[in-house]
Fold:
Amino acid sequence: MQNKVLVILIVILLIIIGIVAVQNSKMDDTSDDEMTGEEMQADDAMMEGDDSQASADSTGVVAGVNINTSLAGVWKSTALPRYILELSADGVAREYYAKTLTNTGSWTASDESLNVVFTGRNYSYKLITVNRDSFVVEYIATGERLQFTQANY
Structure:
């Protein structure tokens, strides 16, 4: 019974996060050939080793950032702040809701995707943007966007 409730809560969470993320997303209308002043500063910062301002490449994933290193950490949902996702450097994933551990599993990432497994179920996400302080993913099953910021947990 608890597993069913947990699955329902996770699905509701993903829907809420996706709706909010879609509402907050903005279209980038700059062409691929032109760099804005902000993109040039981010490019310079990336060349100097500061990935906090690295800019996204054409696929949306931040160039010059080690994905596994960048995603390892504790993350808070922007749509549901009581939801915390911890991605440990050793591949362990933990979910917390209201400071209570609700799930433990595993995670892997590549330059384009994040896969999280909880209770034998695989959740696949497309990486949209990743940097030191936040990341945005798209849940492949529904197309919903989820945004997370670094959490002090």
In short: The longest strand covers residues 100-109. The mean pLDDT is 73. Strands lie at 73-77, 83-87, 92-97, 100-109, 113-118, 121-130, 134-139, 144-150. DSSP finds three helices and eight strands in the chain.
